[in-house]
Amino acid sequence: MADISLSGVPHHVDGIQASYMAQVQRRRLYGGLTLLIFVVLMVSGFNVADDRNAGGFWDGLHQIGDYPADVLSEAWEKRADLPALIAKYFPALVETINIAAVSTLIGAISGLFLSLLGTRGLAKWPRLIPLFRRISDIMRAVPEIVIALVLIFVLGGGPVPAMIAIAIHTAGALAKMFSEVSENTDLKAVEGLASTGATWSQRMLLGVLPQVAPNYVSYTLLRFEINIRASAILGFVGAGGLGYELRNAMAWGPGRFDEAAAIFILLFGTIVFFDQVSSRYRNRLTEGQGQ
């Protein structure tokens, strides 16, 4: 009997190996088909977009460095004027930073309430959790530039439409991030406060926020970096700030490329500065090294 059972083991192992190799081959086949479909879609999509372009991609590819070269050459010729131009456009930079700061503040406060009202175990009205989550989904699904274009049509150009558009998108994005952090909160403190008769606001303020504050602030600083870039981009559609001045300088063409270079220097320096400062404080918060 022992000999019979042992003689059947190799066949059983061979069967397992054959089954495994068949699964590997099927996975490779599915992976190859998926890659092939992806490549076909990318190529066809590129060809459709290239056909609908005013100019062909391949025809203009050799000119990709012409505009940066013209900007740099003119800026170098007029390099003595760059400090004065940087000072000239500094107020527009301040406006851009103000747009980002105010929109981040409003969006963070709104996102905080949306996240707490949409988190299981913390929500004041549990039945309305899906409603608050869908609201945050809609707010972050619509791009800032679309909201800004609608608001510019209603309110006119300026920093206010940009601030409102960025604040709406920021509230939806931070609500999602804050909600993921809040779901990992230890509910013992909340339950203890509830047993003493604390209100919902008191439970959130004393039981939840002390646990999640470092991550909340970290995400808010990260969003502030993103909003500086967004506020500059929205300037291209007439929402004010440094982006508006950059659009005018670029649209004017040769003769004002030195102004475009000065604006690029201001924008690049600002983004790098805030990125470094924000990264430093975010690392301190998340690693528990805050003073």
TrEMBL record:
<dbReference type="InterPro" id="IPR035906">
    <property type="entry name" value="MetI-like_sf"/>
</dbReference>
<feature type="transmembrane region" description="Helical">
    <location>
        <begin position="256"/>
        <end position="274"/>
    </location>
</feature>
<dbReference type="Pfam" id="PF00528">
    <property type="entry name" value="BPD_transp_1"/>
</dbReference>
<feature type="domain" description="ABC transmembrane type-1">
    <location>
        <begin position="93"/>
        <end position="278"/>
    </location>
</feature>
<keyword id="KW-1133">Transmembrane helix</keyword>
<dbReference type="InterPro" id="IPR005769">
    <property type="entry name" value="PhnE/PtxC"/>
</dbReference>
<comment type="similarity">
    <text>Belongs to the binding-protein-dependent transport system permease family.</text>
</comment>
<keyword id="KW-0812">Transmembrane</keyword>
<dbReference type="InterPro" id="IPR000515">
    <property type="entry name" value="MetI-like"/>
</dbReference>
<keyword id="KW-0813">Transport</keyword>
<feature type="transmembrane region" description="Helical">
    <location>
        <begin position="97"/>
        <end position="117"/>
    </location>
</feature>
<keyword id="KW-0472">Membrane</keyword>
<feature type="transmembrane region" description="Helical">
    <location>
        <begin position="29"/>
        <end position="49"/>
    </location>
</feature>
<keyword id="KW-1003">Cell membrane</keyword>
<protein>
    <submittedName>
        <fullName>Phosphonate ABC transporter, permease protein PhnE</fullName>
    </submittedName>
</protein>
